[in-house]
Amino acid sequence: MLGLDLSFVNWDIISKFVLKGFLFSVQLTIVATIGGIFFGTLLALMRLSGRKLLMIPATFYVNGMRSIPLVMVILWVFLLMPFLIGRPIGAEWSATVTFIAFEAAYFSEIMRAGIQSIPRGQVHAGQAVGMTYSQNMRLIVLPQAFRNMLPVLLTQTIILFQDTSLVYAIGAYDLLKGFSTAGKIYGRPEEAYLLAAVVYFVICFGLSYMVKRLQMKIAIIR
Amino acid sequence: MTWDWQVFLNDDGGGRTYLAWMMHAWGWTLSVAVCAWVVAVVTGLLVGTVRTLPSSPWLVRAGNVWVELFRNIPILVQIFLWYFVLPKIFPPLQQVPGFVLVVLALGFFTSARLAEQVRAGVQALPRGQRYAAMAMGFTTFQSYRYVILPMAFRIILPPLTSESMNLLKNSSVAFAVSIPELTMFAMQAQEETSRGIEIYLAVTGLYAASAFVVNRVFAFIEKKVQIPGFIVAGGTGGAR
Q1: Which domain CATH number covers B114?
Q2: For the whole model, what pTM was predicted?
Q3: Range of B41's domain?
Q4: Fewer Cβ neighbours under 10 Å: the N or C end of chain B?
Q5: What backbone torsions phi and psi does residue B17 show, to the nearest 5 degrees?
Q6: What is the tally of structural domains in chain B?
Q7: How far apart are CA B16 and CA B183, in angstroms?
């Protein structure tokens, strides 16, 4: 069919080459989402704190990260990590550090918008019942901000999942690498790339469909 | 550790300095980005507009398929599809230079994102605008040409700014198919000179500077085309 031959694909190849990469991509996505949201929220709080000492570095970090390509950040971390910790570091670990640091900048913008979307009256109400800043944030503002921004956070996670394929630059073994390795070994690189595209599409399309459903559900409750 | 910026004046083995090589690579990055931008804006506007047409459900569906298809596959995989898979399926494509294939890949990838913004921009217009055009006896084409699109264009300027900056950054992925652009230069020069930090700093600076210029240019356009009292300027798209 069309000069392509997909007959080489069988379960053996999938479990031998693809599964390992798939698991790494998923793991990287989950770890970077959790880490990114955690540090992103901290960055957002720093930027909204009203204290120059916290605002300026956070703003600098977020805008800096957002104005350079992810591939360059991946290369930077891979280059610098051995200097910083004094020994060589695997591509997979390097990628994990990179994605947490990089995504934190993007998640912080989402969390900042989320925090700003909470009416001021909520903050004042918290203050009126005698809550400290941290209680107010933890119990009143952040839960609502998080909930309002849930669809956007999940959409960013889908983009993050797509971006994990860029670890290609440092040769980490992810889903795409799994397919391309299998393709090389069996002499069918084109078919392998096509399959990779199909798998990414199915996952991302499925996830974004679910996010859309969730968005509708949340919209009704609110 | 000491700085060694002189590395940029060293010969790269081919009779030119690393500095000259880097500038050349910067030119490639900008060419890829600008060409892909043109592809993205033309197709993005077209597909986005088509998705808002009032009485052409099949065109709307085709537009939706376009957006979902190009939005849900990672850009790197799309570049591989254009570079390796499509030429295998359609042999005539083997004559097409890699630069063109990468431009198409980046352009269509970005067009899907733009189409989504265009659709949102058109739908954000008050219904009355469309009705007013109909009341004037405009055809569908005329109402889009003279009423809807000029307004929608202004609404989508901020997201267009950030998408343009994204496109510039995404052009770095072209290294994967050996387009001699900035990221490719960074990787190769780092290996040859072992002065990775200086090389990466310079390249990162060029990317950041280019992105900043894009941001300023769009902020300028936004200011120029602003309709007084109609749409409140929401600052400058990219760096919100």
Answers
A1: 1.10.3720.10
A2: 0.90
A3: 20-225
A4: N
A5: -80, 165
A6: 1
A7: 18
